[in-house]
Amino acid sequence: MSGGFRRSSAFGIVGVIVVMVAVALIALQFGSGTAHPTGALIAIVGIVFGFIAILMVLQRRDLNKVSGAAEGEALAEVGPVSDPTTVPPGSLIAAMAVRPMESGAGGDGITVERRRDSSGFDWLCDLWLAERLADAVRA
């Protein structure tokens, strides 16, 4: 799944530069001798938090796109494997299975379901789960 995060990574790189310039311009506009910098601070925090919120939304979309493609690859029918270095990891795990894999099952037979809640912090759980699954595949 190389290159699955193009949109969010490009936005992140360009956005950091844009946010840096915008914050510098706001800071220079208000100067260091301002008695009440509350407006400048509100603007700076709003710009930074807005950038982070948009970046998280883009990363969520990219993660959903990549995970959907990886799930389809893992559930695809595989034939006999002659050279394990040339097949994708999902196909290799499926070829080594002793019985057919279920639709929601991971490489070790554990069924994984993503819970969507209204808190907005499920992306952190997804990141943790993705790291654990990557470690399990590498092992």
Describe this structure in words.
- With 139 residues, the protein is mainly α.
- It folds into two domains: 1-75; 79-139, no CATH class.
- It contains four helices and no strands.
- The protein has helices at 6-30, 38-75, 89-96, 122-138.
- The longest helix has 38 residues, at 38-75.
- The protein is rod-shaped, with a radius of gyration of 22 Å.
- The two termini are 19 Å apart.
- The model has no long low-confidence stretch (mean pLDDT 75).
DSSP, total strands: 0
Residues in β-strands, percent: under 5%
Cα(first) to Cα(last) distance is 19 Å
Q: What overall form do the CA principal axes indicate?
A: rod-shaped
Overall mean confidence score, pLDDT: 75
- Report the radius of gyration as a whole number of Å: 22 Å
What share of residues is helical? 55-70%
Query: What kind of sheet is the major sheet?
Result: none
Low confidence ranges: none
SSE string: HHHH
Domain tally: 2
| SS-derived structural category | mainly alpha
How many helices does DSSP assign? 4
List the helices and strands and how they pair.
Layout: H1 6-30, H2 38-75, H3 89-96, H4 122-138
A few lines on this structure:
The chain has 139 residues and is mainly alpha-helical.
Throw out a few tags for this protein.
single chain; mainly alpha; 2 domains
